[in-house]
Amino acid sequence: MSLLHYINAFFSDGAHWHGYDGIPHRLAEHLQYSFTALGIAAAIGLPLGLITGHTGRGGNALALIATAARALPTLGLLVLMFIWLGIGETPVMIPLVALAVPPILVTTYEAVRTADPAPVDAARGMGMGPIAVLFQVELPMALPLILSGVRSATIQVVSTTAIAAYVSLGGLGRYIFDGLYQRNYEIVVGGAALIALLAVAMIGVFYLVERLVVSPGVRLRRR
Amino acid sequence: MIQIESITKRYADGTTAVDDLSLEVPDGSITVLVGPSGCGKTTTLRMINRMIEPTSGRILLDGTDIHSQPVNQLRRSMGYVIQNAGLFQHRTIVDNIGTVPRMLGWDRARARKRSLELMERVGLDLSLAKRYPYQLSGGQQQRVGVARALAADPPVLLMDEPFSAVDPIVRKGLQAELLRIQAELGKTIVFVTHDIDEAIRLGNMIAVLRTGGKLAQFAPPDVLLSDPADAFVEDFLGTDRGVRRLSFFTSAGLELTRGPIVGVDAGAEQIAERAAGEAPFLLVTDNDGKPLGWVAAKDALGGGLRHLELLSHGRPFTFGDESLRDALDCAVLSPTGWAVAVDDSGRVVGVASQETIGNAIRAAHAGRPGAARVAKAAR
Questions:
Q1: Which EC number(s) are documented for this chain (chain B) (predicted)?
Q2: Which of A45, B165, B196, B336 has its CA 20 to 30 A from that of B223?
Q3: What are the structural domain ranges in chain A?
Q4: Phi first, then psi: what are they for B319, rounded to 5°?
């Protein structure tokens, strides 16, 4: 049986579309884990990146932390946290947040730090306060780059959230781990395809978000 | 009036950017800070709106220390224009211009109305209002920069090399525009440039700074050209400052003659009468009085000027409006050595020989301080 057959069989089986182990419920769980982790990561990465980028201080320390966080093996961290904290969402959130913070933090820092200095100088010279300079000048200009950082974090987290199933939680990873255990490759391939699809869908979502929140003056200029 | 009282800016590494500089910037005129790179001109400008704080000395605005009010309030009372304009890429042109009015709490409609008014004032087409900066040329962006600085009608305008990033033709247009706006608004402008020609063109007063942040000379442009304080200033002014200084003398005092002027349909008798005058050439004008070209007096005697081949009359100068430098330039470039003077509508009001222009130059010099100094030295 080919891959396409597996996929076809998985999606056309009506049993996979409802119930506790159905696609809608697993998808909802998957998105819930992913977005919780991303929300926490953004709450850490965005303000830190904005402040360090705006002041231009702490860049070295930041790069060090980011590199260290990237070096953490996600699965290893998951198992470690699971053993330490027991069953629950927290041991899953920690490795996912550790995965998502570096791209958000580093690109936000770089985006603000490398923003064109001329408009910032003009804004200060016109009597704009530091908070206004950050939110009305630096942030709007840095937004495309910041969004690209959040986007790559999102894609990584959405793909990696599958590991939640490894420690007995739900999400689309359930199909992969259960399928492997039951040697039911239809479910394994179907689950993997769903996760891949979700990651691709995120690219589309971010395209729309960028159209919505980035000023045409910044968005179109970069083309 | 802005009084700069012996300010010094010394950095932690020991370099001195500005060294004990004192200046009085008069109200309602353009004061240019000019000098080579590293002379502290930009540092001086940025100390006026406290973007940089001096190490010692103080700056007074209308008699009160600039530190006596909150820094952002001070900055909002001074327009600030920088190189490359520094526009906000994410805001439309109207919103860019309306930045300071909005900060001052104007409502959106009022700020917008004011922005459109300013776009007209700086010569920007109103169709650009909803565009973003990246859609504008460098020259247009710089006009937006000037409009943005003028938006809240501040009495003071600080301009830091605003025109140095655009090409020479656009720069000339922007300079002319600034002079026109200044004639209307009468702001107190401090203008930084490294270009001495720009300084002479724009400045009512010019402060020449030398490397290390010391004031070399503070004088009106024509005095600077006639009386450079020392070898540094003289060198910085460059060559032909004598000719350049003629820009400050009006052509209104020139003694023009109408002697060699004939209409294109003039009869043989009239031509003979004109040809008998001092000039070896006659200037032929059309029936409207506009110049057509020169013809050698002896060739014209037969009449029938319409069928003769004429020498180009070159560029005429506008009598009274343009300077002695323009008149001299016209004479030098004319194939006959005579300059053609026209009125605002382009009709010939007279012609002048190089000799006549030379006399006018000598007369003009006699009435100027530079000439007085030379006369004293001769005695």
A1: 7.6.2.9
A2: B165
A3: 3-219
A4: -65, 130
Q: Do A128 and B132 touch (CB under 8 A)?
A: no
CB-based contact A77:A95 (threshold 8 Å): yes
Beta carbons of A140 and B73 less than 8 Å apart: no
In the block, residue with structure tokens 């769903």: A194
Which fold, A3-219? MetI-like fold (1.10.3720)
Number of domains observed in the structure of chain B: 2
CATH number reported for the structural domain that contains residue B287 in this entry: 3.10.580.10
Domain shared by B239 and B354, yes or no: no
pLDDT of residue A223: 55
Which one of B88, B150, B190 would you mutate to disrupt binding with A, by most A Cβ within 10 Å of its Cβ? B88
Size of interface A-B (CB pairs under 8 A): 85
Angle between helix axes A90-113 and A59-71 (nearest 10 degrees) is 140
Give per-residue pLDDT as tens, B88-126: 999 999 999 999 999 999 999 999 999 999 999 999 999
- The residues with which B294 forms a beta bridge, in sequence order, are B283, B311
Which residues, in sequence order, are CB contacts of B364 under 8 Å at separation 6+?
B246, B249, B253, B324
- Flag if B75 and A123 touch (Cβ within 8 Å): no
**Range(s) of the domain holding residue B261:** 252-362
Of B76, B82, B91, the CB nearest to A121: B82
- pLDDT for B351-364, tens place per residue? 888 888 888 888 88
B266, pLDDT greater than 90: no
State if pTM tops 0.90: no
